[in-house]
Amino acid sequence: MYTCTMPIRYSLSFLLCLIFSFVDAQNIGVGQWRVHFPYNSPRGFVEAEEQLYIWGDQGFFRYDKQSGERKILSKIDGFSDVSVSTMHYHESTKTLLIAYQNSVMDLLVNREELIQVPDIFLASINGSKEINHISAFEEYAILSCGFGIQVYNLKKRESTATWRSPLFTEVLAASVFQNKVYAATEQGIYVANLPSAGMTINPGAWSLLRSGNAQLLGNDGSQLWTVMDSILYRSDGTNFTANGSKRVYYKMPKQGSQLFLNADTGLFILSPAGIDYRKTDPASQVMLIDNMLYSASFGFGIIIDRGGNALEFISPSGPQGLRAGKMASKGSKIYIGGGFMFERGAPSYSLDGYYVFEKGNWTNSRASFNEYLDTFADIHAIALDPSGDLWLASLLDGIVRMRGNTVLEHYSPLNSPLKAELPMLITSVQVDDQRNLWVSNYESNYPLLVKTSGGVWDSFSLGNATTVLDMIITRDGNKWMKLRDKSGVSAGIMVYNDNGTPLDHSDDPNPKYLGIGAGNGNLPSAEVRCMTEDRNGQLWVGTAKGLAVFYSPSSIFTNRPSDARQIVIGEGDNVGYLLGDEEINAIYVDGGNRKWIASRSGLWLVSPDGQEVLANFNEENSPLLSNQITQLGMVEETGELFIATDKGIISYRTGSSAAGDVHTDVKVFPNPVKPDFDGPITISGLPQDAYVKITDISGNLIYETRANGGTATWNGRNFSGRKASTGVYMVFTANQDASDTFVSKILFIAP
Questions:
Q1: CA-CA distance, 492 to 268, in Å (whole number)?
Q2: Exposure pattern of 440-467 as b/e (b: 16+ CB <10 Å)?
Q3: Rounded to whole angstroms, how far apart are CA atoms 164 and 204?
Q4: Phi, psi of 373 (to 5 degrees)
């Protein structure tokens, strides 16, 4: 008979409460990354046993046909890159070949062993090295590249030969058929005999078999099939017979003795028996797998047609588009514009709407019908007002205020002072403490506008400074605007002070211009890339030639305005400016007042005063997608930093978050701490810079720290560096004057 004492019964109940109260599978741990790609328009897929590997313009994922599991794959999982050019599965060696656009190739063997093949990437070859197509011949992978054909031995795992010719350069597809090699190029199909020994082909051995623009090529074991000048041909290796008229063809993957050629009119299944046609919607790739049609659709992910009108849509959660505009965050949500503006003032004409990320899932505005937003192009600027309403500004179509999916207000040149000329180019929207909406309107004669909380519009002239690319509002109410140089307008910063009376211009001082030179702002460069105010009221400015700080920005309109200063670091002979003369494209201030800085060499984390570099992430030492970072934003509640790059969005869980004066929804992650967990344990929802003490169940102090903003971390070790043993640990936290306290519990399971 089982008996249990009261203390043990209490502990079991408590542990169950812990597990169900604190497990948060939607978050990642501090120091962990995750990628966020649009998976709605895949470019292709390949079947590998029971899995499908699907790739898009950026990013790829795995789908298990039996379980339905979807697993996003990236550099986080050890893969070399995310920009896939093509894939191929070699059945006899059970090897998945993943070719990236930079010509590096990964081999995934038996779903376990991951091998990087940088041979082409490292080769001294002029011109493009991109791998356009992969086919198989015995144990060899035939790689059609921008410079010719590369042969790779999958059993020996080595490059065997390079096939090139003075007759052609780029090969779009290649196939070995009847002891000959056929190469499809934009000039036609070339052929060479396969050597009886070895795999070396003399460059002079190639000859033109048929001229024309050959885009696709393959064989079914009995005959060749090719698409040339948009017409499908079959061939015995010498003679070509046309099949049908011109069409738009996409891909022609091979499976066994069948080729699946999809066109804008449907799917053509090519085999020794001839052509079988299936009516399908246009897609980038269609295949018949297990008697079901799999389509890489335009806009809806992978669609599986199981017959009888039963359709299944396969697409991991992701943003609508690859590029990102400005970001805004409140609580557990981050909002990201789907449009963006090029640095020289040109819009992107994106119709991706805007994206919202919350607790591991993406919601896209284009997924739900809205008569305004469905035609809004280039939603670039975003702002949240104190009520939680969302302001969206389009570079082309005006401004709307949203509550949920409902448009409450819509402003255009017809009902506001926004400029009438197209493109409208609204570059920024900001809401001040009085709920007035401030707008910057690029290349308008009145580039600064305001709509008061009472609904009255007004506009402001800045002289010849019309090229306002961005704007922020500092805590003293001043509007700092980034200017672009154009037609006699100098680059730099323009600051406007409305004196707290936006509709009364008479008490406003003249706008203040800041640029290079002592007494004039002293910026390292007039080409300003970004501006942000930190939690101490200091203004950090990123320029084309370095970083600078206005330590007293409120003095700009006084008789003794202060210039910007660069941060000097180092000692003795090793002294220099923080980040030197690097181009600084984005700055984000986290809850602990630390600065996340995006330069041309990656992402930097520096201490609140900038005197210490705490971390540096780049393409080489981290999963960062690209060093070309365009925007930074953070989920306030969790401290997850969103990093927009030219290759897509990736996020990183920092050890900091926004905070107030009291505890709010305190969470411990992970909880319980399992034996295989080796990362930092996170306590979030704390007051600003809270005091944290951790004890064992007997009250012995084993660790203490201070929160970064609203988040504290613990490495799971005591003061001596020894990992905590199995048991329950108490976390005591308090705000700075101890007027608000909280007690959390952590279940720690040691190895």
A1: 59
A2: bbbbbeebbbbbeeeeebbbbebeebbb
A3: 9
A4: -70, -25
Are 339 and 377 in contact, with CB atoms under 8 Å apart? yes
> Which of 13-27, 225-239, 681-695 comes out lowest in average pLDDT?
13-27
First to last CA, the chain: 30
Distance (Å, whole) CA 253 – CA 45:
9
Say what the pTM is. Answer: 0.90
Please calculate the CA angle 487-490-496 and round it to the nearest 5 degrees. Answer: 120
Q: For residues 445 and 507, is the Cβ–Cβ distance under 8 A?
A: no
> Distance between CA atoms of 149 and 172, rounded to whole angstroms?
9
* Per-residue confidence (pLDDT) for residue 536, from 0 to 100: 94
- Spatial contact of 642 and 626, defined as CB atoms under 8 Å apart: no
Dihedral-angle region of residue 480 (phi above 0 means left; psi in -120 to 50 means alpha; beta otherwise)? beta
pLDDT beyond 60 at 453? yes
Q: Which domains does the chain have, with CATH numbers?
A: 6-25+659-748 (2.60.40.10), 164-279 (2.120.10.60)
Residue 454 pLDDT > 80, yes or no?
yes
pLDDT per residue as tens digits for the range 126-163: 889 999 999 999 999 999 999 999 999 999 999 999 99
How far is 116 from 120, CA to CA, in rounded Å? Answer: 11
Question: How far apart are the C-alpha atoms of 235 and 513, rounded to whole Å?
Answer: 71
pLDDT category at 423 given cuts 50, 70, 90 is confident
Asked if 120 and 160 touch (Cβ cutoff 8 Å), the reply is: no
Helix (H), strand (E) at residue 407: strand 406-411
**Residue 121 parent element (H or E):** helix 119-122
